[in-house]
Specification:
2 copies of one chain form a homodimer. In chain A, 43% of the residues lie in helices and 14% in strands. By secondary structure, chain A is α+β, with helices and mostly antiparallel strands. Chain A folds into 2 domains: 221 residues, Beta Polymerase, domain 2 (2-Layer Sandwich); 224 residues, Poly(a)-polymerase, middle domain, CATH 1.10.1410.10. In chain A, a hairpin with a 2-residue loop joins strand 13 and strand 14. The longest helix of chain A has 27 residues. Strand 9 of chain A pairs parallel with strand 4 of chain B, so a sheet runs across the interface. Chains A, B: Pfam families: MTPAP-like_central, PAP_assoc, RL.
């Protein structure tokens, strides 16, 4: 892989300065990820829970500091080191420049806070809530002469940059590996996500000291893409864990406010936390309390990190689903490469969307990739039932009546030898779903088998843990049809093999997209082509609005659409 | 005073059982107060601040426990003593039976909380906020056979009980002393008030750890009556006190939410605390956020204590006024006796009211008593300027440009010898204000002199610290006239001396109100007499409603009327 970086470097010297800068940051992100590989490998013997716990604990020892655009990294670190040993640190720019600094001990945070001022001039017009989001004050005019530290990229590369980058690779396998490296969350980005959860935990922990704000979904399932939302759970289980001692004699109980139901109490707690985030939480803006949704949530933007955050409560199945995906992602590197590629391909062709509706979701796509890999011969991934059978007594997990047990010790899992290339798997994926009998069969990763559809919905994918539910209930026939047609088209393009020929005579300036990059070009059938875009424009507005309304209805209570991303590759 | 209790005891044996019970509780309250005298005397060398600080610190070591109606005090204390030494405890009944338990160390609270359960059965429909308001669970049916502990009275006696009680006294001076004893806050009640502030402080302290919820007004000014509201200030000064270090080099600042003004931030903070109290605060009901008032406040009922609470912020002048009244109350016992008597007399005759409006307030009445005592020859109380002149350097206090300096060390104050009896002072008070030139003179306790009225308002009493303000701006001519007429009538009744003769031949059953008790009987001029009550009934409803609206308007932003008390003596 180091060799291919060399090629990229030579290649991008001929590009526009702006494109050069973007590509440089992409490559540095990929390099960072290459470094991560080692870190990830070292973590492979740890369970999902152990990794999350370690990251959470690191976040609790960390601070987020707003910095001037230029400053001496050395002076900055010397200043902070007065309060204790610094384990790790990095800089990034979002709405301004920021540093994440992880101390080796939590006491350093207390010492640092003791020496931190409340903004003096306007202090009476500011809410004096002392969080771990600080600002570095550089004395006077000294800042101008300072160097610019190495700010790490926290956004994904644009689709244009990706296409160029991939076209320089020598094989489809290299392309898919490179794509994963360019899109996946960096170690630093994951740290920042845990830090934002930890900062929010300080707000929630004010009333519920034993509570933990845990990230779930893409932040932890190993399939997260740079720029994706941070999904969080308010985990209150620790509160109950410490008490409930019963004797035969006298006992004491806390007097507590009662709610009409667990849901009402969840709404109440989220409502107060939402208000606190809104009024006290520095850098937290655009707070929306979406409490009437099936799963009540508080949504807000955390400006210093640039993250869109969704806080829910009592969502333990979602956390278990994250663990399951993480586990599948760890078993074979091809899983993540294929998932990242299929998701990128789907996003470019508007198969998935950043707003809720009848579109196929990333989770659905991931389950489809897992199912496809279970169907290989020999299978690349075990079934969920096999993961359950390997589980030890401590892995036992039942959530609201659903058996969510899976093995946590990856070393117990023996995989069969399958040496298929990524290129082969990609082609077979498109063929598999281009010809899948969606009209009668459902997808079931628990059994690893097609099953008869229990309902007449367009697409039926059994929820892995809540087995009576369909994870793709939202998908309508039109969207499924678009997906199938695109699979067929991509399979056909790969079968033709024309796009697999990389012309070596091309100069760096005029490299043509080939291989996987060619699959990202606008399609005639997908609605991303010029023709169909024009066709859509001619549709009467009323019909487009009706479709939008229909798609919003499907989500039930949650009618507030996510903000559309301006980044087409998001 | 012990002898007179004996008289009371003999006397009330002849009464209805219900009246007997009420009187018994009144007398026990008075007895408790007699005990308090010693406690108060011991505290006399302490400054106001030191006393408040001591009470606050005691409250932080205390818990409030809901109890069954019958239980063994010994077993209860044995159970709690496992967690540390108990300094003090008492029981009272309000909405149910409660215990206040003060440990000698704060660690005992932590230990106790460790061993306290969250209600188990419905735990998912309860907000698991762990406060210091607990419930004692007595095992099974054992409770029925247990004794009833000594529950202390926390409500004031009714006006009927007071009249009977006073009529048994042998002199007007004894009557006024007895009245103070019956109405004033008990040590236990003050402890309970500080505890409620401390419990609320736990809620506010979640976000502002250095903040303190301080009671002010009647809870601390030594003129508080059983059943009066708890006025609280959210004091955030401690937050700023710890920081604001400045060096020449790098420094760190907290990132904080900005508000448009200090007022906007106060509203925001009170709004969030109000929401937290409403949603999380056990026992807190009827939360009203009155944020648009001149002084934004959160009002709520704390059911376990039975207190109506008003939480404001940034109200340091109010705290200083409390200190001033406290100081005047400590200088000579006659001050408190006269204030309690005049306030009781005013309340019975509807000169004061529990709803906001054009009525004279308790604070106004107290300042009038202070001014009257400054006018005696020789003066019983020093002027505010004299108290300022005696102040030491550490007493210096300027709040928002107003010099609020007063001496804190009472031993520095030398009083002139004045041996007037309470009877004489009461009569002179009525004569003084029955003849006061309210039309042209204003009352000024800072100078201790009448001054020319700077405005044409009916009653002008200079605010002691904010000297450009009139504390009685709300009072209209009608209300002032009623006050003056009642003063004249009471002065006349006392001058006639008929009511001062206690007929010794009266039997216990038919004791006639005499002395001060006779002044509490309905008056012809005051509007409490039968005749005028009938007259009011004939007033058209529209006129009564107009008056009510007028009186509400006077309070400006604050249009939410206080709940009327059902206790006529409140």
């Amino acid at each position: 892989m180091a060799a291919s970086f060399g090629v990229c470097r030579l290649f991008y010297l001929g590009l526009e300065p702006q494109t050069q800068r973007r590509l440089a940051s992409t490559i540095s992100a990929i390099k960072a990820q290459t470094g991560n590989k080692t870190a990830r490998a070292a973590k492979e013997d740890k369970t999902f829970q152990a990794i999350q716990e370690e990251r959470r604990e690191q976040a609790e020892r960390s601070v987020l500091i707003s910095c001037p655009p230029r400053f001496s990294e050395k002076k900055f670190l010397d200043y902070l080191s007065k309060h204790g040993t610094i384990n790790k640190h990095f800089f990034y720019s979002s709405y301004g420049a920021y540093a994440v600094v992880e101390f080796s001990s939590k006491e350093s945070i207390a010492s640092l806070k003791e020496n931190t001022n409340i903004p003096a001039v306007e202090h009476e017009a500011a809410v004096p809530f002392k969080s771990r989001l600080l600002s570095l004050k550089w004395p006077g005019s000294q800042s101008n002469n300072q160097p610019v530290p190495n700010f790490q990229e926290q956004s994904p590369p644009s689709i244009g940059d990706i296409t160029q980058l991939l076209s320089e690779k020598d094989s489809v396998d290299e392309q898919l590996q490179c794509l994963t490296g360019a899109l996946q969350l960096t170690e630093e980005n994951i740290s920042l996500r845990f830090l934002v959860c930890s900062l929010l935990g300080d707000i929630a922990g004010a009333y519920f000291p034993e509570c933990i704000i845990r990230p779930f979904g893409s932040t932890v399932n190993s399939f997260g893409k740079l720029g994706c939302d941070v999904d969080m759970i308010l985990d209150l289980d620790g509160i109950y864990a410490t008490s409930q001692k019963k004797g035969s004699g006298l006992s004491l109980e806390y007097q507590v406010k009662r709610g009409a139901s667990e849901r009402a109490v969840t709404q109440s707690i989220l409502s107060v936390i939402g208000k606190c985030v809104d009024q006290f939480g520095p850098g937290c803006v655009g707070v929306q309390k979406i409490l009437q949704a099936r799963c009540p949530l508080v949504r807000f933007s955390h400006q210093p990190s640039g993250f869109q955050c969704d806080l829910t409560a009592n969502n333990r199945v979602a956390m278990k689903s994250s663990e399951l995906l993480f586990l599948y992602g760890q078993l074979d590197p091809r899983v993540r490469h294929l998932v990242f590629s299929v998701r990128c391909w789907a996003r470019v062709h508007n198969i998935t969307s950043s707003i809720p509706g009848a579109w196929i979701t990333n989770f659905t796509l991931t389950v489809m990739v897992v199912f496809f890999l279970q169907q290989r011969n020999p299978p690349i991934l075990p079934t969920l039932d096999q993961l359950k059978d390997l589980a030890g007594p401590s892995d036992k997990c039942v959530i609201e009546g659903n058996d969510c047990t899976i093995v946590s010790d990856l070393s117990k899992i023996t995989l069969q030898k399958n040496t298929d290339t990524l290129e082969k798997l990609l082609q077979e994926f498109f063929e598999f779903y281009g010809n899948f009998p969606f009209n009668k069969a459902s997808i079931n990763i628990r059994k690893g088998k097609e099953q008869t559809k229990p309902e007449t919905t367009a697409l039926y994918i059994q929820n892995p843990f809540e087995t009576t539910l369909n994870v793709s209930k939202n998908v309508n026939a039109t969207q499924l049809e678009r997906f199938v047609k695109l699979c067929q088209e991509s399979a056909w393009l790969l079968q033709k093999r024309e796009i697999l020929n990389r012309s070596s005579s091309q100069s760096a300036e005029s490299v043509l997209p080939w291989g996987f990059a060619a699959l990202l070009l606008p399609s005639v059938t997908s609605g991303t082509g010029v023709k169909s875009r024009r066709k859509r424009k001619l549709e009467p507005a009323s019909s487009r609005i009706k479709n939008l309304l229909d798609s919003l209805k499907i989500k039930g209570g949650e009618t507030v659409a996510k903000k559309g991303s301006t980044n087409p590759s998001r």
